[in-house]
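During the second year of the project, the team shifted from modelling isolated chains to modelling whole assemblies. The rationale, set out in the original proposal, was that interfaces cannot be judged from single-chain predictions alone. As a representative example for this report, we include one of the complexes processed in the last quarter. Its constituent sequences, exactly as entered into the pipeline, are reproduced here:
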Amino acid sequence: MTKRIQWLLAFLVAAVIAGCNKPGGGDTIKVGEYASLTGKEATFGVSSHEGTLMAIEEINAAGGVLGKKLELLTEDTQSKPGEPATVVNKLIARDGVVAVLGEVASSRSLEAAPICQQNKVPMISPSSTNPKVTQVGDFIFRVCFIDPFQGTVMANFATKTLKARKVAVFTDVKSDYSKGLAQFFKESFTKSGGQIVSELDFNGGDKDFKAQLTAIKGANPDAIFVPGYYTDAALICIQAKQLGLNVPLMGGDGWESEKLVEIGKDAVEGHYFSTHYHPDVGSEKSKKFVENYKKRWNGKNPDALAACGYDSALVLVDAMKRAGSSDGTKVREAIAATKDFDAVTGRLTINEQRDATKSAVILQVKGGKFAYLETVSP
Amino acid sequence: MAEILQQLVNGLALGAIYALIALGYTMVYGVLRFINFAHGDVFMLGAFAGYFFAPMVNRFLPAQSYLNGAIVLVFAMIVCALIGMLIEFLAYRPLRNRPKLIVLITAIGVSLFIEYTGQHRAVFGAAPRSFPELIPTVTWKLGGFVISTNQVIVFVTTVLLLVALTFIVQKTKIGTAMRAVSFNEKAATLMGINVNFIISFTFGLGSALAAAAGILFAMNYASIDPLMGVQTGLKAFVAAVFGGIGNLPGAALGGVLLGLIETMAGGIPAISPYRDGIAFAILILILLFRPAGLLGKLQPEKV
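Output from the structure prediction step:
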C-alpha cells in the first residue's frame, strides 16, 4: 500500500515539474487573465473577457509582439472570494504567465494583487475602481479612473443636475468597491452643501432590501445613491418601486449590465449611473472597436467593461513593445511610463499612483437602453 | 408609525417564507433525527421549477391570473415533492442505520452537489434570472404604508398550507403514522407501519412546502439563482431551532419571529450591516438558554 502511495507521489511531483514552464520560454508569450465568467457578476467578467480576448486576437493577427504570438490563459473566479488567489497563483506558478489582466470587481482584484506583487508579475486591472487596488504595490496598474473621481462626479450630478439636497446612501458592506465609492460620494456631497439623511447597508447577494428601503423612505430623501453591483441594484430598484419610493436612484459603473434591465425591467427606468465609456461618444478608434466587437461577438453591443478589457490588453502590449522584452520588471517600467496612449475609452496616461486619468460618462436608463447624458473630465 | 407598520408587513412576508421552509427541516428531524441540509436547495429547485413551467402555462392561459399562479405553485410543489423523495431514496435511505453524523455529512454533500450542478452552464447557469410575474401586481397605498398583492398572497398561501399541514398531521391516518414514527420508529414498525413509506412521504411533504416557499419568494423578490437556497435555507434552519426543532407550530412561530426581527434590524442604520448575523446570534442565545427552543421539549439522549 505504502509503495503504491510512493509511486503516486513520485508521479505527481514529476507531473508538476513537467507542467512548469519558465516565463518567456516557448514560442508564445503567455498572458494570464482572471475574470468572473460565472456567478453573481458574470456579465462583468464575460464582457471584460470578450474585450480582452478580442484585443489579443487582433494583436496576433497583426503579427504578435516581439516576434511571438500571445497566448491568453483565462481563469474563472466564479464571482466568489477566495477564487482569485487560487487561480492567479496557478497562472503564475504553473502556467508561468508574464503578466496578469483582471478583475472587474475591486474586492477580487485586491485579493490577487499581493500575489502578483510578490512574484513581480505586472498586473493590470481593466476596471477595478477602488483606490486600494493599485496601492498594493508598484507592479499593480489599472486602465480606469478611481472612485474618489467617480464619487465626486456623481455628487456633482446629484447637486447640479438632479438638484438634490437630501440624499440617502445604501451601501454593500461586502464589497470594497461599494464602501469606497459610498465614502467618496458622501465626502463630496456634504462638501457641496448637501445632506446625507440616511445611511444603510446591505450584504451583496441579499434578496430582501425592503427593511432598509422602508427606513430610507422614512428619511424622505430627494435621491438615493446605491453604489452596488447590477444584480443587487436591480432588485433594489424593484423593491423601492414596490414601496412607493419614487425618487431617482444613482449608481456607479457597477450598474452597467444588460442584466440590470432584464431583472429590473420598468423599475430601473429613469435612474442614473456613471461609467467609463459609451459607444455613442468617442474617437475613430472607439468606432472601429464597436464595429469589430459586433462582428466578433455576434452583433453584441460592447459595454464599458468590454472596452476597458480591450484597453488593458493594448496597454500591456504597448508596454512590452516599448520595453523590447517580456521580462516582468522591464514591462512594469514601461507600463508606468505609459503616456497619452490612444485607448478606446479615451486618451490614457498612467499617473504616479499607477491609475489612469480619464473622463467619466453619466448614463440614464431609457426605454430599456442606457442613454448617454454627459461626459465629465477630471 | 407608518414605517413600523410597513416593517411589520415586510417582516411577516419574509417570516412566512422562512416558516414554510423551517417546517421541512423540523418534519425530517422529527422522523429521522437529522438535519437535511439539502432542504434549502429544494427551495431553490422549487423556484426554478416555477421559472421553467410558467411560460408553458402562459401558452394556454395567456393573461396573468391567480389561476396561472396556482397552477405553477402546485406544479412546483409536485416536482419538488418527487425530488425530495428521490434525495431520500438515493442518498439517505442506504445510510439509514449508520451513525447520524454520516447522514448529516451526506446531506451537506447533497446540498453542494445540487448547488454546483445548478451553477453549471448546461443546467441553470450561475447568473441570476428574473422570475416572471405570475399574477397581476396591485399595490394598495394607505397613507405612508404600502402593501402589494404579492405580500397578501404570501400570507394567505402560508396560512392555507399551515392549516392543510396541521390537518394532515393531526387528522389523517398517514399523519398519525408520521407522529408514531417520530415517537418511536421501532414500535411503529411493530404496529405494522411501513416506515420507509412514511419517511418518504415526510420528505415529499416537506419538499412541497419548500417549493411553495420558493415560488412565493421568487414572486416577491423577482430574482432567482442557484445559490438562493444557501442563506435562506440556513436562516430557516435557525428558525426551526429557534422554535424548537421537531415541533411543527414551533417552526412556524420561529420563522415568523425571525423574519420580523431581521426586518426590524435591517431598518436601523447602525445595525443594518449585521442583519444576517442577528439570525445566528439568536441561534447561539437560544442554544445557551433554551436548548430545546421556544416550544420544544428537552429530550434527554439515552446512552
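Strands of chain B lie at 129-130, 139-142, 145-148, 223-224. Chain B touches chain A through 42 residues (CB under 8 Å).
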